[in-house]
Task: inverse folding
């Protein structure tokens, strides 16, 4: 892979974003820690248009290419974060469970964060996901977890001004999940990431609000296929370099066209198919017989109806989008698959916040 070429393409995209007014010079803040301080946050997941797989620099979580997404409301995440001046270790509880997998992710992100700001002490995280569906895979829940946990941490360490700086929050959400970088922004956003870039610029920048004239929804599908190694598998694919190079071409065109939503819908659909092909070439099949059957139904419908789009990330849950609600209605009424409408109401978390706050405070007292 020609890293120098990709770096230059990334620098070009950064300049284009700056010239177009999307780029914001990342600010920094000074820690102001208070023993036993507890802060709260929330976040919603994203669904990618221009996707990413593969880290150029795993230690700093820098991806090979920028990526673009929109916010969805299929679920949300609430986080409580407590700082302790004295303790033995950082702790993480997700949905009432603590295990080595969560601890490992938290240790990586927190150790990185503490080293950067020379922070002593420990953090306790109480995190809970709220879904509008049953068990499913590929709905980007990890992006909401990363963004929510990052914002709660930033609020605890730096205060409210820093926690409201989405660019700053996104810089640390990426340490938990690359997609979480974009989930730290609102609406449509781009994660600026490319080889050999300046670390402070590896953050998400807002591209505008979600287009509320766009109808969307998802078919939640479950899979027990492990995708933990998807990033490594993708990078080793014979098709990976071509896939990445196409992304830089696409993003430059999108910037020139002011991120036209129609263009992004076409990219989302094509990139979903390419993502599956790249992983398949490495031996990872992320679709299931059920999701493949549904994709065949979508393709047959699209052959007779213009204006319906589909996409998916690293999972079998299929999202459909259209500016024509009648197309979505017609299609969903003629398949038996469970379907969940998306909306632009991102205030649902407020109904759960009081109960969550009580739960978190009781948990922190118990482990004190």
Result:
């Amino acid at each position: 892979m020609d890293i120098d070429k990709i770096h230059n393409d990334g620098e070009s995209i950064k300049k284009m974003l700056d010239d177009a007014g999307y780029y914001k010079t990342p600010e920094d803040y000074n820690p102001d820690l208070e023993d036993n301080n507890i802060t709260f946050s929330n976040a919603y997941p994203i669904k990618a248009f221009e996707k990413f797989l593969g880290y150029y620099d795993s230690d700093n979580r820098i991806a090979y290419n920028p990526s673009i997404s929109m916010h969805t409301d299929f679920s949300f995440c609430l986080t409580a974060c407590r700082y302790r001046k004295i303790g033995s270790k950082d702790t993480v509880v997700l949905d009432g469970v603590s295990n080595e997998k969560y601890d490992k992710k938290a240790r990586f992100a927190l150790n990185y964060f503490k080293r950067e700001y020379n922070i002593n002490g420990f953090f306790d995280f109480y995190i809970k996901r709220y879904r509008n569906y049953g068990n499913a895979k590929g709905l980007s829940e990890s992006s909401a977890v990363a963004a929510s946990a990052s914002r709660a941490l930033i609020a605890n360490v730096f205060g409210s001004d820093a926690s409201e700086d989405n660019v700053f929050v996104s810089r640390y959400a990426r340490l938990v999940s690359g997609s979480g970088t974009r989930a730290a922004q609102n609406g449509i956003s781009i994660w600026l990431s490319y080889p050999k870039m300046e670390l402070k610029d590896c953050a998400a920048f807002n591209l505008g609000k979600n287009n509320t004239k766009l109808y969307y929804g998802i078919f939640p599908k479950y899979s027990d296929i492990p995708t933990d190694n998807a990033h490594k598998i993708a990078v080793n694919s014979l098709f990976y370099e071509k896939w990445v190079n196409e992304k830089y071409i696409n993003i430059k065109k999108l910037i020139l066209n002011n991120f036209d939503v129609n263009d992004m819908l076409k990219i989302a659909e094509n990139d979903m198919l390419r993502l599956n092909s790249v992983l398949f070439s490495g031996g990872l099949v992320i679709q299931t017989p059920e999701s493949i059957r549904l994709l065949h139904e979508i393709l047959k419908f699209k052959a007779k109806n213009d204006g319906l789009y589909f996409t998916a990330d690293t999972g079998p849950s299929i999202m459909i989008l259209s500016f024509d609600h009648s197309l979505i209605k017609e299609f969903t009424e003629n398949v038996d698959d469970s379907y969940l409408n998306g909306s632009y109401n991102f205030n649902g978390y407020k109904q759960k916040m009081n109960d969550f706050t009580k739960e978190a405070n009781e948990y922190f007292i118990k482990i004190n």
